[in-house]
Amino acid sequence: MRAALYLDAGHVVVDDVPDPTVQQPTDAVVRVVRSCVCGSDLWAYRDTFKREPRSRLGHEFIGTVEEVGSAVSTLRPGDFVVAPFSYGCGACWWCRHGLPTSCPQSGTWGGGDHDGAQGEALRVPFADANLVVIPGGVEAYDDAGLLDLLATSDVMATGLHGAVMAGVTDGVTAVVVGDGAVGLCAVLGAVTLLKAEQVILLSRNPTRQALGRQFGATDVVAVRGEEAKEAVLDLTNGHGAEAVVEAVGTPDSWTTALDVVCDGGQVGAVGVPHTAPTIETMPLLSRNLGVRVGIAPVRRYLPDLVERVVAGSLAAGAVFDLTLTLEQTPEAYVAMDRREAIKVALVP
Ligand SMILES: [Zn+2]
Ligand SMILES: [Zn+2]
After folding, report:
1. N or C of the chain: less Cβ packing under 10 Å?
2. What is the C-alpha separation between 126 and 71, in angstroms, rounded?
3. Cβ distance 110 to 55 under 8 Å?
4. How far is the CA of 58 from the centre of ligand 1 (A)?
5. Architecture of the domain defined by 159-293
6. Distance 140 CA to ligand 1 centre (A)
7. Superfamily holding 2-154+297-347
8. Are 28 and 132 in contact (CB under 8 A)?
9. Ligand number nearest to the C-alpha of 86
């Protein structure tokens, strides 16, 4: 089959790789219907993180079950499924407590020597515990519906997780720092699922501002740094926001997040801190701030998110503003690296 491979910084190719097979009784083989490129795929592409040459890429997908191992009991060939971007065993203390990202057997598609989602098919370990069946089968969804479902695999769940960690609840004012797919999905999650009253998106990009407003942002702040702080204070009667989602992970975005949160408020951070921001703890103490940082345990959110997409009450697929074929994966990386696309969907 065909799959995208990482060669070195700035260099992704699509090549022939062995077909995936059931290796453990708990495995399934899933044929990809849609996958995509993630902002986090760009770290190795930009040489921020090291990655093994010829390692597989992609960790977000929806697909159809092709084959299951003898111990798989809840899935059958033909089932239409979505996978969380990382998997767990489903049986350990962490998995049973909704934190499969801490499972000793956890892994990510494309991580280590695992199949990636930017390919025609994958072997899925612990299939019963990880794959969520989408009702109606693949034929029940048009292109837009498929992208709404694909978004639940990572960015919708990750954005929502940021808003949950920031303590967004009914009636609060929230700020979202970051206008990537995750930040935009944090806006949607804060408004649609958590019922925030006011959501302020920090964005300087007109396309992303428009999508943020479509997702329910009540205000857009198009400046950075000290100016952004002043603008948010102006919009919040001078006290700042009770909940702030940090969806970038840089020292500057952390400074802004802590500048715009009100005393007694909370920051929920899902931006990967790849440039090592440091946080002073004394201001957290004197201002009574809460800070939660976490990789999204997507599987915990998936059944609810899928149900909402199927019911037509949640549609995050608009974050995919470009769709290419699997063979065009190298072009997808270029488009995202240049910020010409928010997020690129791939059709096998
Ligand atoms: Zn991702
Ligand atoms: Zn586990």
Report:
1. N
2. 9
3. yes
4. 8
5. 3-Layer(aba) Sandwich (3.40)
6. 25
7. Medium-chain alcohol dehydrogenases, catalytic domain (3.90.180.10)
8. no
9. 1
For residues 223-247, average pLDDT: 97
**Residue 274 scores a pLDDT above 80:** no
Question: Which ligand is the nearest neighbour of the Cα of 101?
Answer: 2
How many other C-beta atoms are found inside a 10 Å radius of the C-beta of residue 145? 18
Do the bridges between strand 28-36 and strand 61-68 make them parallel or antiparallel, or are there none, so unpaired?
A: antiparallel
For residue 335, the model assigns a pLDDT of 97
Does residue 68 have a pLDDT over 90? yes
Q: Report which bound ligand comes closest to the CA of 61.
A: 1
Neighbours of 136 (CB within 10 A): 11
pLDDT of 307 higher than 90: yes
Q: Which of 133-137, 162-166, 269-273 has the lowest mean pLDDT?
A: 269-273
Q: Please report, in angstroms and rounded to a whole number, the separation of the first and last CA atoms in the chain.
A: 10
63-80 core/surface letters (b: 16 or more CB in 10 A; e: else): bbbbbbbeebeebeeebb
> What's the chain's average pLDDT?
96
Token pair recorded at residue 171? 């009636």
Task: Give the span between the Cα atoms of 348 and 346, in whole angstroms.
Answer: 6
**pLDDT confidence of residue 27:** 98
Boundaries of every domain in the chain: 2-154+297-347, 159-293
Distance from residue 134's CA to the centre of ligand 2 (Å): 23
